[in-house]
Every structure is written in structure tokens, then in C-alpha cells.
Amino acid sequence: ILPAVSARKGQAFHFGSTYDTTEAPQSWFDTMFESFFKHVVSENGCKWDATEPEQGVSNLTECQACRSFATARGNSFRGHNTFWHQQMPAWLPGNFTASELVGNIIPQHVKQEIGGMGPSVTSWDVVNEVVGDNATTGMTALQCVLSKADWPTVTADGSGIPLVKDLSFVYAAFSTAFATAGPNTRLAVNDYNTGGQDAKTECEIALIKSIHENTHIPFDRLAIGFQSHLTAAVGGFYTKSELATTFSTLAKLGVEAMITEMDIELATNSTAFLRYQAAIWGDYLDACLYASNCNEFINWDPRDDLSWRGLPAAATLFDGEGNPKPAAYEVAARLENFAAGKPE
Ligand code: XIL
């Protein structure tokens, strides 16, 4: 069905899931990534602690193994991520000055990782989760980033004093990514609790505009990743029309929108909540499918027993034994519907 979806969109539509080579059972992964998921993100293997365990020592073994798994099944691959305040290598936090970080450490890492993985990557999360949760409307991009409570832990001295007080670390990461990535690779900012009409989403848009203005990377190489770690509860997700409004704002700029880490926690693993979950999943997928500028949709963790949100959260498309849940059938139906040229 995905080739038909891509044909109707007029460009490749990448629908897939996280994968790590240590996850089992392998036979289930083989089947699912041949038939249902056709796009791969390494869940942890491309993060900074994995890829540069010692300063200046590149280790792309797991990141590349995940991409090889994808390629062997005719699947595409997305990169997550080159900069995040979590899963940093132990040698990094607190050990460098602002000018060392911005001038050397961050660009050197981005270059070794993106360069080492080569051009066959659909998109990279260049910076992950740099916007604060208590952002307020009208903030500048810098205010958005400085409002993040745990941001300084990345680039701070031993007492937690933030060293980098401007967006130079973001611009350095993006400039290096742009100079290093393949010509078709989109470069993304990626964050949670984003997608609708609210201050944090406004911040993502302000940030992508400021990256464009300061690095001169064309808008048509940039993207905003909407992680979409949701809950099936009032206020736990955005509506389809809220997402569509945001995606169309980005389309006017030429910026791509991506659903990058979709999962939906259930309050109760009951039939009613499984149907609620399916409906939300279907709406997110439709918002992406019917937008001209949304071409990647990643489900975060392929099955409930492997989910970072825990088995009881039942947050993925497949249950703890790997059997499809109502949301998996809903997703398949929405893809069929789109491919058949029907309205959302
Ligand atoms: C999570 C992984 O799923 C876990 O296995 C790991 O222990 C912690 O990170 N936002 C992100 C992802 O951008 O990288 C996180 O992944 C989930 C939240």
C-alpha cells in the first residue's frame, strides 16, 4: 500500500518505526519491516553517547546496523539525533567552555556522525528538544530556548550555570549538518508537546525561521519534527484540524512537517480506550497524509512490550505479543483510503 500512497502524494511517503538490533524477536521484526513498516529510525543507536563514546572516537556501529537492516528490506532510514540534552556521553557535560562547544565539540560531532552515515538518510534531527515547556506566546527563538529548564545541563559548568547564552550552538549544528548531509536530506528541529496553535509550537516555528535567517539554509531543506508522545485523554493530543493548520503554515514557508515519535498512552487497556487510541492515530496519520509537506510518519516503538512508555501503557500499534491492535487496523485503513484517492 505504501508505494500507492507515495504515488498519490507525488513523492515518497515514509511510514515506519523505531528499531534496535538488540530487540527481539527477530522473526517478528523481519516480517513487520518487510510488510507494514517501511521506514526505520534507530531508537538509541544514533544518539551522541552511542556514536561518540570517547571524545573524537566515532562509533557508528549500531546506527549503521539499523540502516543496513532498513536497506536490506528496501526501507528508508531517518537519523535521530545529533544533539540532545539526554543520552550525552559522560565526557561531555560540564567539561568545555562555550567557545569550545560552539566552535569545536558540537560541529565536530555533527560532522562525524552525519558525514559518517552518508547521504542516504531522509532527515536528521539536528537538535532535539531545545524548546522550553513553559514558553509563552510571542517569545523570540532565543527566549524559547533559554526558557528550557534542563537545557543548561548540556552546555553548563559543574554548577549548572549555562555557558552558551545565545543560539550559536544551534546555528553551528545546523550549518555543519547542511555542509555535511546529502542534498536531499531534511534537517529538523524535533520536540514533544507540539503540533497545534500554542506557545511551544510557535516557538518551533520561530526557531526554524531564525535558523534559516542566521545560517541561510533554504527553507526547503528544513523540517519541524512533531514527536507526538500522546495520551488518550482530554488535552492529551491535538485535533486533526489543529495539526492541519500548523502543517499548512509550514507548507507556505517550504518547511516540512514530520510526525517523528508517535505513541499514545492509554489510561486503561480496555476496548473503549483501544478505540479511542485508534481514532487519534488515524487523525494524526490523515493530518500528515493529506498535507503536501508531511512525508515521514514514525511510530515510536513497534510493539507494547518494547515501548519506552512501558507495557501497561499499551502505547503502540501492536500488543505485547506482536498482534495488531485496533490502531494498527485503523492505520492500514487510512493508508488504503488515501491511496484510493478518497477524501479524509
Ligand atoms: C527514548 C527511548 O525510547 C528509550 O529506549 C531510551 O531509554 C530513552 O529515550 N524523546 C526522544 C527519544 O527524542 O529519543 C526518546 O527515546 C523518547 C523521548
From TrEMBL:
Residues 1-334 form the GH10 domain. Pfam families: Glyco_hydro_10. Keywords: Carbohydrate metabolism, Glycosidase, Hydrolase, Polysaccharide degradation, Signal, Xylan degradation. One of its GO terms (molecular function) is hydrolase activity. Gene3D superfamilies: Glycosidases (3.20.20.80). Its EC number is 3.2.1.8. It catalyses: Endohydrolysis of (1->4)-beta-D-xylosidic linkages in xylans. It comes from the Eukaryota. Belongs to the glycosyl hydrolase 10 (cellulase F) family. This is Beta-xylanase. It comes from Mycena chlorophos (Agaric fungus).
